[in-house]
Amino acid sequence: MKKIYITAALLSLFGLADALYLTIEHVTGQSVRCTIISGCSEVLSSRYAVVAGFPLAAIGAAAYFSVFSLATLAIFGYRAAGTLLTPLVTAMFFVSLWLIYLQAFVIREFCQYCLFSAAITVCLMLVVVIGRFVLKPASV
Amino acid sequence: MKRLLPFIIILVVLAVALGSAWYLTRPIQSNATPPPGQLSAATPGATLAPQPVVNQGIPGAEPAYTLGPPTAPVHIEEFGDFECPPCGIFHPILKQMEEEFGDKLHITFREFPLVPTHQHALAAASAAEAAGLQGKFWPMHDLIYDRQNAWKEQFDVRPIFEGYAKEIGIDVERYKRDVGSDLVAQRIFQDGKRAHSMGVKGTPTVFMNGREVPFESLPADKFRVVIQQELQSAAKK
Fold first, then answer.
1. Could you tell me if the ipTM is greater than 0.90?
2. Is pLDDT above 50 for B46?
């Protein structure tokens, strides 16, 4: 099981780096500028990029940091942390699906950094599912 | 110690994340002359020091389309994409500054259509340049920006821009010939080459007396202050 948690912790670090980058772009206003990278400015300057006054990317960074923290605690035997990992990653997975829907059908532009984040979350979901249903521990 | 280790790891990652965020968003402090709009944090409220032109780049299309006297103390050069929403937002801000500061500003517009990010950006740039060949670059420039939302989602923008050409009173048949001409394409290409030589990555990118204005300084209230500081700086020279 340790390998599952280590994989989740490492994946969440990539997600954290990506979300931090997007947050910095948002805070400095760079995300609003149009660039040769298609779609990012349209996505990151859309009204969906801010939730209750907070940049969505910052909320994502907090979520990835939470995953990292829980996975790290689980590696060191904190079973409750492993238990909390499943609902958190599941929630992130469904939020990612919603964000992909928004990009595809509402904004009609894709931002590669957002897609990378979604890919990380899908991988995290897979890791959690494997840990829970394939390796069948007491709790993941 | 082993029980504390996960918490130490978590705190280290948190510190690295927050430290990186702080480092990348902090105001730049150095002995070098700050760019327009970026005051040294060490001297709050200070005006900008006299600044040398630091980014000449290679020449763009000549003659450039400009507003204001070449002798104006503040030269503003915008690299813009007509389909870019922030450029559309910046357009009335620049118009407002032009009205407020009058002949103290010399404004140059450079084409930087983001192809293929924006499907009609090149057509819009060509339309403005073609109008420019009949001496009506700025009326077409203004019309395309003012009505950005009306054309950017359309499938075929050519008849729309031809309508604009008619509206600004130019010879539409000549416009139709010019819009696809080598001369127009060459002008846009030359502006693009200048943009690349100056490190332009996105739009709008604005240079003031040769130095890039930080993107976050482009809202009207901040941009006005940047111009005022530049004028004060020029007056001291």
1. no
2. no
